[in-house]
Amino acid sequence: MRVIIEDDYQQMSKKAALLVASQVRLKSDSVLGLATGSTPLGMYDELIKMYERAEIDFSQVTTFNLDEYYQLSPKNPRSYSYYMQDNFFDHVNLHLHNTHIPNGMAEDIEKE
Q: How many other C-beta atoms lie within 10 A of the C-beta of residue 8?
């Protein structure tokens, strides 16, 4: 494992965004595992800025998130689906059919 230490949250967010951007530029159909919570918000902001400056294209990227709250609709502001839409997906050219978040409303949660 490679550990990278930065001086502060802003620098860490920029470095993380640069690493993701480098991967996507290297392989346009990359598969990314994405996180929720407060830590990746700065990285998402940086990636959005790169997209707005036409420095990165997410059109062929596929994403996966591992978590969702059970019995919480994706439209609920507390859900991880909503979080990802609000903080990243709605601001870049990711195709929603290429984003994968567990369905917390699934009838068979074990199968989900």
A: 8
**What does the alpha-carbon distance between residue 44 and residue 14 come to, in Å, rounded to a whole number?**
9
Q: Phi/psi of residue 33, each to 5°?
A: -95, 120
C-alpha to C-alpha distance for 53 and 37, rounded to whole angstroms: 25
pLDDT tens readout for residues 88-101: 999 999 999 999 99
What six digits make up the tokens of 81?
Answer: 């689906």
16-75 pLDDT, tens digit each: 999 999 999 999 999 999 999 999 999 999 999 999 999 999 999 999 999 999 999 999
Of the candidates 102, 110, 88, 108, the one whose C-alpha atom is nearest the C-alpha of residue 42 is 88
Question: 64 near 73, Cβ under 8 Å?
Answer: no
- Which tokens in the block code for residue 42? 């700065």
- Structure-derived torsion over alpha carbons of residues 28, 29, 33, 35, reported in degrees to the nearest 10: 50
